[in-house]
Amino acid sequence: MQTKKRRIESKSQSTLTSFFTVEKQTKKKSVKVESTAAESIKKETVKEGSAQEESTKADSAEKSSVERKSVEEESVNEVIRISVQEPVKLPERDLVEREEEEEEEKEEVAWTNSIYTEEFNRMITTVLEGESYLFDEKELELFHQFSAFEDAPRDLIVRLLMRKHRWIKQNSLHKYPITDIDQTCKILSDSGWIEREMTDIEIALSVLTKQELKNVAKERHIDIQEEKNPRRSDYEKEILNHMSSKHISYGNTHAFIESKAKKLWDTVNQYLGISNYQRRYTFIEQTIIGPCVYVRSHIYTLFQRLQIVYYRATSLYDTNYVSQSILAKVSKRNYPQYVCSRSNSIWSCREDLLRFEEALLVEKQFEETLQNLPGLKRIKTWSRKERTKEETEEVLLSGWSLCETKIGLWDECICSKEKDLGVYYKRRFEAGWIYTRLLDRGTEILAKLREYQMESLILHKLLSQRVYRLGKRGKWYERLALIQMNYLEKNDAKAVRDQKKCALQTCIDALHDTTVHQIFLPSIQERIKRLERQLCIPKREQHDFSYMCLKKPREIIIYGERLSEEVLGKKSIWRTNNGAECSVEQVALEYYSTKGFKGLHAENGIIRMIASLLFWDVIFASIPGVFETPYQTEPLDLRSDAFYESRFDIIKERLNEIENGNYLEMIRSVDEREREKQTMCTGINWNYELQDILEIAECIGPSSLASLCKLLFEEYGQRQSGMPDLCCWNYEKKECLFSEVKGPGDTLSETQKLWIETLTSFGIQVEVCFNDRMLYKS
């Protein structure tokens, strides 16, 4: 997915570059200047030098004024310079003509800002209109200073703010359509917005690529064992150790280290693109002037805070909100049309915003600590390499330490909020929500570290509050009961029995908790029955859940050839009829095709797709406070109880229309309107073909489809998993079948059992397909 995302962003970057070339505003009657520039671009591939010279002459002949002439030459040279860096894709002719008509109405030459800068201007204007109270006087002054910058400094600082906050090589900035990078950097440096002096060798090494670090080590004769496949951090560590080492030195050790440091800086500077006259040495510390830039921390923090307020950001990890809006503006990403009404009371005061921002930064640090962590999903994979196990444990411990330091702040958030709860779905913009999410992730770390005592304490704390993330309470009850039942005491028989009593009470509390969703109840009831048997509770005192017993689904057994061995955490590999490798679900699809069914391995995808198409205008109905930005794929309250309650009448009306048989035309009209634009909406996957969608909906039938949609939107946040793997249908017979596929040794989860029971109660055919491991096919 991330590879696809990078590909999309790369394509959009070239599209934006073409926009920068043509979105320059000129004086009245300056259309000829752009025409001349465009002609020069076409000619430069044949004879670049002569083309530029002819273009300049043509401009000189056309304008008599010296001032006008200089403006024309500057515009031509600017366009040519950009075209040399990367190919320019000219826009469609009708777009150019519209821009030329707008330009002719202007009386002065004014080059427009880039589309990125326009987005930042829009952010500042929108936020300061109604939420300026969230910023202090110094921050407001910086916003005004940003607006007062000329185009080049403003465009460059925007580009820098969109990148990760670190030192950046100045020569990497020449790809941006900015005339004089050196002069622009000097303006920003003099204004106090960026730094250009680097005095730390460790920071300098962090700017270099892995290959450049490898070259530095080689040139300074630093021995690094390549057969161990060293990582970037290994190179940095060895180079720093080399600079500070004292071996083979005689006499003045301090002078020797200074000499090694100076030589190392000489080598590093070569890769930073710094000439000798740009270097300045002061003992061990060297100052590099010119080739690297760094946005000052208070500037970067301020504009990050601006984005949080404007985009209503609920996560800072692996999310670029500006890029999302830019992709929408250049039609690379389309969002649904709805009435956006910003409420200026998300944060009542600046202190609330700062606490929320701090919580987001802590969560970002936590996720960055755990990213690419080997063995995170399955602790048993640690046994593959002892080195991996040790490193993984160290990272997990650092991640939990970060969570542990925030428990006090989380307690403060709970205490302050219990007095005034407010609207539930807006609590996601509070620090307490983020810290609750962080502690929930922390329990997963404790489970992998086998720190069950601490995990049970954190789960108790999570369950003791009824303010944040109430939809997770069923999961917390389940995990706490499991720990109390199996992991806390193993030696003392009496202590084991006491813990099982505690586990039983935890399950009973879950049954009485009205916030625990129905989807968790079957597994909790099963655990109660198991505990009561183990505790030898008399039959007459045991709970009776026979009235809620789920019916056993229809089961079939098919046979296939399995190619892979059983490896924990990996999907099994099977062979298709044509000899190709496939998944166990594909084997089942081949079986159903012999029975006359077409099929999709969709899990809950196809049902969500049909429901979203049918309820498109309901989802994006104009409800106050649920659409804060133009870049939402769902309303803020969709995954809460408030969604169904606030739209009860229009949902009931839509369900009646579906039961009356009008659903196929609804699906077709929304699909035809939105598919071409590939509009982003929750539950929508445009890879499904319209014909398949219509056939499946018709085979399910109006009554069953209405019941399924009603359930989904009543409990949208809890009904996102557990659906059967396959959706199969026979359009000629108007039959629809959902099938859960299981390989050898697999069993149904309680969530899957509940979904099977639910679908069956709606009159939809469901079965469980067991794929047995055999060396022949049926």
Automatic annotation (TrEMBL):
Write down the top EC class of this protein.
Answer: hydrolase
Which residues are in the VRR-NUC domain?
Answer: 658-771
Regions of biased composition (Basic and acidic residues) lie at 54-72
Question: Which EC number(s) does UniProt give?
Answer: 3.1.4.1
Instruction: Show the catalytic activity.
Output: Hydrolytically removes 5'-nucleotides successively from the 3'-hydroxy termini of 3'-hydroxy-terminated oligonucleotides
Annotated GO CC locations: nucleus
Q: Which cofactor does it need?
A: Mg(2+); Mn(2+)
Family, per entry: Belongs to the FAN1 family.
Protein name per its UniProtKB record: Fanconi-associated nuclease
State the organism of origin: Rhizopus delemar
